[in-house]
Request: fold
Amino acid sequence: MSLQCSSTRHFDRIPIDVFVRIIKFMGPMDAARLTAVCKTWKILVSDNRLWIYFLQNQAGSWDLIFFGETHLRSGYPFPAFPTQMHELSFMHIYGQRFKAPGAVIIDGGSGYCKYGWSKYPSPSGWSATFLEFGNIESPMSSRLRHFYSTICSRMQVKTSSHPIVLSLPLCHYDATESAKRSRRQLKETIYSTLFDMNVPAVCAISQATLALFAAKRTSGIVVNVGFHQTTIVPSMFLLNYYVEVMRNVGVEVVRIGALKLTSYLRDRLQRNNVVVESLYTVRTLKEKHILSKERFQTGEILFQPRLAGMQAMGLHNAIALCMEHCHNAELTCDDNWYRTVMLAGGTACLPGLAERLEKELNDLLQSTPLRCGVCVLPPPHGPNSAWFGAKLVSNLSSFPNAWCVTKKQFRISSKRKLLW
Reply:
Protein backbone atom coordinates (compact mmCIF):
# COMPACT_ATOMS: atom_id res chain seq x y z
CA MET A 1 0.00 0.00 0.00
CA SER A 2 1.33 3.46 -0.93
CA LEU A 3 0.48 7.01 0.02
CA GLN A 4 -2.33 8.69 -1.90
CA CYS A 5 -1.87 12.43 -1.68
CA SER A 6 -1.66 14.81 -4.65
CA SER A 7 0.32 17.44 -2.74
CA THR A 8 3.33 15.23 -2.06
CA ARG A 9 4.13 14.14 -5.63
CA HIS A 10 6.99 11.62 -5.61
CA PHE A 11 6.32 10.70 -1.94
CA ASP A 12 3.07 9.09 -3.10
CA ARG A 13 5.03 6.08 -4.36
CA ILE A 14 6.69 5.32 -1.01
CA PRO A 15 5.18 2.29 0.80
CA ILE A 16 3.59 3.23 4.13
CA ASP A 17 5.86 1.01 6.26
CA VAL A 18 8.96 2.60 4.68
CA PHE A 19 7.47 6.07 5.17
CA VAL A 20 6.80 5.40 8.86
CA ARG A 21 10.35 4.11 9.31
CA ILE A 22 11.69 7.33 7.80
CA ILE A 23 9.57 9.34 10.24
CA LYS A 24 11.04 7.36 13.16
CA PHE A 25 14.52 8.42 12.08
CA MET A 26 13.39 12.06 11.84
CA GLY A 27 12.38 12.22 15.49
CA PRO A 28 9.27 13.52 17.28
CA MET A 29 9.74 17.25 16.64
CA ASP A 30 10.03 16.93 12.85
CA ALA A 31 7.32 14.26 12.80
CA ALA A 32 4.87 16.66 14.45
CA ARG A 33 5.53 19.25 11.73
CA LEU A 34 4.52 16.75 9.03
CA THR A 35 0.90 16.91 10.20
CA ALA A 36 0.60 20.27 8.44
CA VAL A 37 1.52 18.86 5.00
CA CYS A 38 -1.74 17.09 4.14
CA LYS A 39 -4.55 15.01 5.62
CA THR A 40 -2.94 11.69 4.66
CA TRP A 41 0.32 12.53 6.39
CA LYS A 42 -1.57 13.86 9.40
CA ILE A 43 -3.38 10.53 9.80
CA LEU A 44 -0.15 8.56 9.46
CA VAL A 45 1.85 10.73 11.84
CA SER A 46 -0.95 10.73 14.43
CA ASP A 47 -0.84 6.93 14.76
CA ASN A 48 -0.47 5.92 18.43
CA ARG A 49 2.09 3.23 17.56
CA LEU A 50 4.51 5.83 16.22
CA TRP A 51 4.32 7.98 19.36
CA ILE A 52 4.53 4.98 21.67
CA TYR A 53 7.79 4.23 19.86
CA PHE A 54 9.03 7.77 20.59
CA LEU A 55 7.98 7.47 24.26
CA GLN A 56 9.72 4.10 24.57
CA ASN A 57 12.95 5.66 23.39
CA GLN A 58 12.81 8.42 26.00
CA ALA A 59 14.79 8.25 29.22
CA GLY A 60 12.83 6.34 31.82
CA SER A 61 10.71 3.21 31.95
CA TRP A 62 8.02 2.87 29.28
CA ASP A 63 5.97 0.69 31.63
CA LEU A 64 5.94 3.50 34.18
CA ILE A 65 5.03 6.10 31.54
CA PHE A 66 2.19 3.92 30.23
CA PHE A 67 0.88 3.27 33.75
CA GLY A 68 0.95 6.96 34.61
CA GLU A 69 -0.78 8.14 31.44
CA THR A 70 -3.50 5.47 31.56
CA HIS A 71 -4.21 5.54 35.31
CA LEU A 72 -3.09 8.88 36.74
CA ARG A 73 -3.37 11.59 34.10
CA SER A 74 -6.92 12.48 35.20
CA GLY A 75 -5.50 13.77 38.47
CA TYR A 76 -6.66 13.31 42.04
CA PRO A 77 -9.25 12.36 43.14
CA PHE A 78 -9.49 9.64 40.51
CA PRO A 79 -12.60 9.50 38.32
CA ALA A 80 -15.10 6.70 38.69
CA PHE A 81 -14.41 5.54 35.13
CA PRO A 82 -10.69 5.69 34.21
CA THR A 83 -9.74 6.80 30.72
CA GLN A 84 -9.53 3.87 28.32
CA MET A 85 -6.51 3.42 26.13
CA HIS A 86 -8.38 3.92 22.84
CA GLU A 87 -9.41 7.40 23.99
CA LEU A 88 -5.81 8.53 24.39
CA SER A 89 -3.76 10.28 21.76
CA PHE A 90 -0.13 9.51 22.49
CA MET A 91 0.90 12.25 20.09
CA HIS A 92 -0.93 14.73 22.31
CA ILE A 93 0.50 13.06 25.42
CA TYR A 94 4.05 13.32 24.05
CA GLY A 95 3.57 17.00 23.32
CA GLN A 96 2.13 17.71 26.78
CA ARG A 97 4.94 15.78 28.49
CA PHE A 98 7.50 17.71 26.45
CA LYS A 99 5.95 21.01 27.58
CA ALA A 100 5.59 19.94 31.23
CA PRO A 101 7.30 22.62 33.33
CA GLY A 102 9.11 20.24 35.67
CA ALA A 103 8.98 20.52 39.43
CA VAL A 104 11.03 20.51 42.60
CA ILE A 105 10.44 17.19 44.41
CA ILE A 106 10.83 17.04 48.19
CA ASP A 107 10.35 13.67 49.85
CA GLY A 108 10.41 14.30 53.59
CA GLY A 109 11.09 10.79 54.86
CA SER A 110 11.06 9.91 58.55
CA GLY A 111 14.86 9.48 58.65
CA TYR A 112 16.08 12.03 56.12
CA CYS A 113 14.72 14.09 53.26
CA LYS A 114 15.43 13.43 49.59
CA TYR A 115 15.09 16.26 47.08
CA GLY A 116 15.79 16.89 43.42
CA TRP A 117 14.55 18.10 40.06
CA SER A 118 11.78 16.06 38.40
CA LYS A 119 13.78 15.76 35.17
CA TYR A 120 16.72 14.19 37.00
CA PRO A 121 17.11 10.39 37.02
CA SER A 122 17.40 10.28 40.84
CA PRO A 123 17.42 12.57 43.91
CA SER A 124 20.23 15.12 43.85
CA GLY A 125 20.58 15.65 47.60
CA TRP A 126 19.68 14.63 51.13
CA SER A 127 19.06 16.58 54.32
CA ALA A 128 17.40 16.33 57.72
CA THR A 129 13.59 16.29 57.66
CA PHE A 130 11.57 19.43 58.44
CA LEU A 131 10.63 17.86 61.80
CA GLU A 132 14.31 18.02 62.81
CA PHE A 133 15.26 21.19 60.93
CA GLY A 134 16.25 24.41 62.68
CA ASN A 135 15.33 25.32 66.24
CA ILE A 136 12.90 22.70 67.52
CA GLU A 137 11.25 25.31 69.77
CA SER A 138 10.42 27.59 66.83
CA PRO A 139 6.88 27.64 65.39
CA MET A 140 6.24 25.01 62.72
CA SER A 141 5.70 27.66 60.03
CA SER A 142 9.15 29.18 60.72
CA ARG A 143 10.84 25.79 60.59
CA LEU A 144 9.06 24.88 57.37
CA ARG A 145 10.04 28.17 55.75
CA HIS A 146 13.68 27.68 56.76
CA PHE A 147 13.55 24.08 55.52
CA TYR A 148 12.11 24.81 52.07
CA SER A 149 14.30 27.90 51.59
CA THR A 150 17.40 25.85 52.35
CA ILE A 151 16.48 23.11 49.86
CA CYS A 152 15.70 25.61 47.08
CA SER A 153 18.99 27.37 47.82
CA ARG A 154 20.90 24.10 47.56
CA MET A 155 19.18 23.32 44.25
CA GLN A 156 19.81 26.90 43.07
CA VAL A 157 16.19 27.49 42.04
CA LYS A 158 13.81 30.32 42.82
CA THR A 159 10.73 29.36 44.81
CA SER A 160 8.56 31.44 42.47
CA SER A 161 9.68 29.72 39.26
CA HIS A 162 8.55 26.07 39.59
CA PRO A 163 5.81 23.97 41.18
CA ILE A 164 6.73 21.87 44.21
CA VAL A 165 5.73 18.22 44.68
CA LEU A 166 6.17 17.01 48.22
CA SER A 167 5.33 13.89 50.17
CA LEU A 168 3.36 14.16 53.38
CA PRO A 169 4.95 12.18 56.23
CA LEU A 170 3.15 9.19 57.68
CA CYS A 171 2.35 10.68 61.07
CA HIS A 172 -0.75 11.43 63.16
CA TYR A 173 -2.61 8.53 61.55
CA ASP A 174 -4.71 7.59 64.56
CA ALA A 175 -8.48 7.67 64.14
CA THR A 176 -8.92 10.16 67.00
CA GLU A 177 -10.23 13.67 66.45
CA SER A 178 -6.97 15.18 67.72
CA ALA A 179 -4.96 13.15 65.17
CA LYS A 180 -7.27 14.24 62.35
CA ARG A 181 -6.92 17.84 63.46
CA SER A 182 -3.12 17.50 63.59
CA ARG A 183 -3.02 16.09 60.04
CA ARG A 184 -5.22 18.88 58.75
CA GLN A 185 -3.20 21.59 60.51
CA LEU A 186 0.11 20.19 59.23
CA LYS A 187 -1.10 20.11 55.62
CA GLU A 188 -2.58 23.61 55.82
CA THR A 189 0.62 24.97 57.39
CA ILE A 190 2.71 23.43 54.60
CA TYR A 191 0.48 24.95 51.91
CA SER A 192 0.37 28.34 53.63
CA THR A 193 4.15 28.45 54.10
CA LEU A 194 4.91 27.56 50.48
CA PHE A 195 2.41 30.04 49.05
CA ASP A 196 3.83 32.78 51.30
CA MET A 197 7.14 31.97 49.58
CA ASN A 198 5.44 32.65 46.21
CA VAL A 199 5.49 29.03 45.02
CA PRO A 200 3.16 28.99 41.96
CA ALA A 201 1.58 25.58 42.65
CA VAL A 202 1.88 22.81 45.25
CA CYS A 203 1.12 19.10 45.02
CA ALA A 204 1.15 17.36 48.42
CA ILE A 205 0.61 13.57 48.44
CA SER A 206 0.99 10.93 51.14
CA GLN A 207 4.21 8.90 51.13
CA ALA A 208 2.14 5.71 51.00
CA THR A 209 0.36 6.89 47.85
CA LEU A 210 3.61 7.82 46.11
CA ALA A 211 5.18 4.46 46.99
CA LEU A 212 2.20 2.73 45.36
CA PHE A 213 2.54 4.88 42.23
CA ALA A 214 6.24 4.00 41.95
CA ALA A 215 5.27 0.31 41.93
CA LYS A 216 2.68 0.91 39.18
CA ARG A 217 -0.20 0.39 41.61
CA THR A 218 -3.13 2.49 42.73
CA SER A 219 -4.36 0.24 45.56
CA GLY A 220 -2.85 -1.97 48.22
CA ILE A 221 -1.46 -2.04 51.75
CA VAL A 222 1.70 0.01 52.11
CA VAL A 223 4.12 -1.06 54.85
CA ASN A 224 6.49 1.83 55.49
CA VAL A 225 9.39 0.76 57.71
CA GLY A 226 10.35 4.23 58.84
CA PHE A 227 13.06 5.63 61.08
CA HIS A 228 11.13 5.54 64.35
CA GLN A 229 8.21 3.23 63.61
CA THR A 230 6.57 1.02 61.00
CA THR A 231 3.26 2.24 59.58
CA ILE A 232 0.80 -0.05 57.79
CA VAL A 233 -1.46 2.05 55.57
CA PRO A 234 -4.37 0.61 53.52
CA SER A 235 -4.82 2.69 50.38
CA MET A 236 -7.50 2.16 47.75
CA PHE A 237 -7.80 4.71 44.94
CA LEU A 238 -10.81 3.24 43.22
CA LEU A 239 -14.07 5.16 42.90
CA ASN A 240 -12.73 7.83 45.27
CA TYR A 241 -12.68 5.44 48.26
CA TYR A 242 -9.42 6.71 49.75
CA VAL A 243 -10.90 8.76 52.60
CA GLU A 244 -13.44 6.06 53.40
CA VAL A 245 -10.71 3.41 53.73
CA MET A 246 -8.70 5.60 56.08
CA ARG A 247 -11.82 6.34 58.17
CA ASN A 248 -13.34 2.86 58.31
CA VAL A 249 -10.24 0.67 58.39
CA GLY A 250 -7.64 2.80 60.11
CA VAL A 251 -3.86 2.43 60.21
CA GLU A 252 -1.77 -0.08 62.16
CA VAL A 253 1.41 1.20 63.81
CA VAL A 254 4.27 -1.01 65.05
CA ARG A 255 6.71 0.86 67.29
CA ILE A 256 9.73 -0.64 65.57
CA GLY A 257 11.76 1.27 63.01
CA ALA A 258 15.25 1.64 61.62
CA LEU A 259 16.46 3.37 64.78
CA LYS A 260 15.45 0.43 66.97
CA LEU A 261 17.02 -2.09 64.61
CA THR A 262 20.26 -0.14 64.44
CA SER A 263 20.38 0.30 68.22
CA TYR A 264 19.94 -3.45 68.64
CA LEU A 265 22.75 -4.10 66.15
CA ARG A 266 25.03 -1.63 67.93
CA ASP A 267 24.36 -3.33 71.27
CA ARG A 268 25.16 -6.76 69.79
CA LEU A 269 28.42 -5.55 68.27
CA GLN A 270 29.51 -3.84 71.47
CA ARG A 271 29.06 -7.14 73.30
CA ASN A 272 31.64 -8.53 70.87
CA ASN A 273 33.97 -5.55 71.59
CA VAL A 274 33.26 -3.92 68.21
CA VAL A 275 33.02 -0.13 68.55
CA VAL A 276 30.25 1.53 66.52
CA GLU A 277 30.68 5.30 66.48
CA SER A 278 27.82 6.12 64.15
CA LEU A 279 24.64 4.61 62.74
CA TYR A 280 26.18 5.00 59.29
CA THR A 281 29.16 2.69 59.93
CA VAL A 282 27.04 -0.44 59.45
CA ARG A 283 27.85 -0.53 55.73
CA THR A 284 31.56 -0.28 56.51
CA LEU A 285 31.26 -3.13 59.03
CA LYS A 286 29.52 -5.23 56.40
CA GLU A 287 32.31 -4.59 53.89
CA LYS A 288 34.90 -5.67 56.47
CA HIS A 289 32.98 -8.94 56.99
CA ILE A 290 32.57 -8.21 60.71
CA LEU A 291 28.80 -8.75 60.50
CA SER A 292 27.68 -12.38 60.36
CA LYS A 293 24.70 -13.70 62.30
CA GLU A 294 24.00 -10.18 63.68
CA ARG A 295 22.77 -9.19 60.22
CA PHE A 296 19.95 -11.75 60.40
CA GLN A 297 19.21 -11.26 64.09
CA THR A 298 18.60 -7.55 63.47
CA GLY A 299 15.90 -8.11 60.84
CA GLU A 300 14.27 -10.78 63.00
CA ILE A 301 13.16 -8.07 65.45
CA LEU A 302 10.48 -7.07 62.94
CA PHE A 303 8.87 -10.50 63.38
CA GLN A 304 9.83 -11.17 67.01
CA PRO A 305 10.05 -7.85 68.90
CA ARG A 306 10.62 -9.72 72.18
CA LEU A 307 14.21 -10.37 71.04
CA ALA A 308 14.85 -6.67 71.67
CA GLY A 309 12.85 -6.68 74.91
CA MET A 310 9.76 -5.08 73.36
CA GLN A 311 6.12 -5.93 73.99
CA ALA A 312 4.79 -5.29 70.49
CA MET A 313 2.98 -7.04 67.68
CA GLY A 314 5.10 -8.69 65.00
CA LEU A 315 5.05 -7.12 61.56
CA HIS A 316 3.22 -10.05 59.94
CA ASN A 317 0.60 -10.04 62.70
CA ALA A 318 -0.06 -6.32 62.24
CA ILE A 319 -0.42 -6.69 58.45
CA ALA A 320 -2.77 -9.66 58.87
CA LEU A 321 -4.87 -7.59 61.28
CA CYS A 322 -5.04 -4.74 58.75
CA MET A 323 -6.10 -7.20 56.02
CA GLU A 324 -8.82 -8.54 58.29
CA HIS A 325 -10.14 -5.01 58.91
CA CYS A 326 -10.15 -4.32 55.15
CA HIS A 327 -12.01 -7.57 54.52
CA ASN A 328 -14.64 -6.83 57.19
CA ALA A 329 -15.15 -3.27 55.95
CA GLU A 330 -16.51 -4.59 52.59
CA LEU A 331 -15.87 -1.29 50.83
CA THR A 332 -16.04 -2.86 47.37
CA CYS A 333 -16.96 -6.16 45.77
CA ASP A 334 -13.32 -6.60 44.69
CA ASP A 335 -11.41 -7.99 47.69
CA ASN A 336 -8.08 -8.36 45.90
CA TRP A 337 -6.86 -4.82 46.47
CA TYR A 338 -5.75 -5.44 50.08
CA ARG A 339 -4.00 -8.73 49.23
CA THR A 340 -1.11 -6.78 47.69
CA VAL A 341 1.43 -5.57 50.26
CA MET A 342 3.88 -2.89 49.14
CA LEU A 343 7.06 -2.37 51.17
CA ALA A 344 8.55 1.12 51.46
CA GLY A 345 11.36 2.78 53.40
CA GLY A 346 15.09 2.18 53.63
CA THR A 347 14.90 -0.66 56.16
CA ALA A 348 12.38 -2.45 53.90
CA CYS A 349 15.30 -3.03 51.51
CA LEU A 350 16.70 -5.76 53.80
CA PRO A 351 17.52 -8.74 51.53
CA GLY A 352 14.83 -11.41 51.66
CA LEU A 353 12.38 -9.35 53.74
CA ALA A 354 9.61 -9.46 51.10
CA GLU A 355 9.91 -13.23 50.66
CA ARG A 356 10.00 -13.89 54.41
CA LEU A 357 7.01 -11.62 55.04
CA GLU A 358 4.97 -13.28 52.30
CA LYS A 359 5.71 -16.73 53.76
CA GLU A 360 4.76 -15.63 57.29
CA LEU A 361 1.50 -14.07 56.04
CA ASN A 362 0.50 -17.16 54.07
CA ASP A 363 1.20 -19.38 57.10
CA LEU A 364 -0.71 -17.05 59.42
CA LEU A 365 -3.73 -16.69 57.12
CA GLN A 366 -3.91 -20.37 56.17
CA SER A 367 -7.18 -21.01 58.02
CA THR A 368 -8.89 -17.71 57.08
CA PRO A 369 -10.77 -16.46 53.97
CA LEU A 370 -7.64 -14.43 53.11
CA ARG A 371 -5.39 -17.44 52.61
CA CYS A 372 -5.05 -17.11 48.81
CA GLY A 373 -3.48 -14.47 46.61
CA VAL A 374 -1.32 -12.58 49.16
CA CYS A 375 1.62 -10.92 47.41
CA VAL A 376 4.41 -8.87 49.03
CA LEU A 377 6.38 -6.53 46.75
CA PRO A 378 9.81 -5.11 47.66
CA PRO A 379 10.45 -1.36 47.28
CA PRO A 380 10.79 -0.79 43.51
CA HIS A 381 13.32 2.04 43.97
CA GLY A 382 14.81 1.20 47.35
CA PRO A 383 14.59 3.97 49.95
CA ASN A 384 13.66 6.49 47.21
CA SER A 385 10.33 4.91 46.18
CA ALA A 386 8.23 7.89 47.29
CA TRP A 387 10.56 10.27 45.41
CA PHE A 388 10.16 8.27 42.21
CA GLY A 389 6.39 8.22 42.71
CA ALA A 390 6.49 12.02 42.85
CA LYS A 391 8.70 12.06 39.75
CA LEU A 392 6.08 9.99 37.92
CA VAL A 393 3.33 12.47 38.85
CA SER A 394 5.36 15.58 37.99
CA ASN A 395 6.15 14.29 34.48
CA LEU A 396 2.56 13.43 33.55
CA SER A 397 1.02 15.13 30.53
CA SER A 398 -1.69 16.58 32.81
CA PHE A 399 0.75 18.09 35.33
CA PRO A 400 0.43 20.57 37.01
CA ASN A 401 -3.21 21.40 36.22
CA ALA A 402 -4.80 18.14 37.34
CA TRP A 403 -2.61 17.63 40.41
CA CYS A 404 -1.55 20.93 41.94
CA VAL A 405 -3.25 23.50 44.11
CA THR A 406 -2.56 27.13 43.22
CA LYS A 407 -2.34 30.00 45.66
CA LYS A 408 -5.70 31.36 44.49
CA GLN A 409 -7.42 27.99 44.94
CA PHE A 410 -5.94 27.60 48.43
CA ARG A 411 -7.10 31.08 49.49
CA ILE A 412 -10.63 30.45 48.21
CA SER A 413 -10.77 27.09 50.00
CA SER A 414 -9.55 28.67 53.26
CA LYS A 415 -12.23 31.41 53.06
CA ARG A 416 -14.94 28.81 52.53
CA LYS A 417 -13.83 26.92 55.65
CA LEU A 418 -13.94 30.13 57.68
CA LEU A 419 -17.47 30.85 56.42
CA TRP A 420 -18.64 27.39 57.40
Notes: Confidence is low (pLDDT under 50) at residues 79-86, 239-244, 279-289. The first strand starts at residue 104 and ends at 108. The radius of gyration is 25 Å.
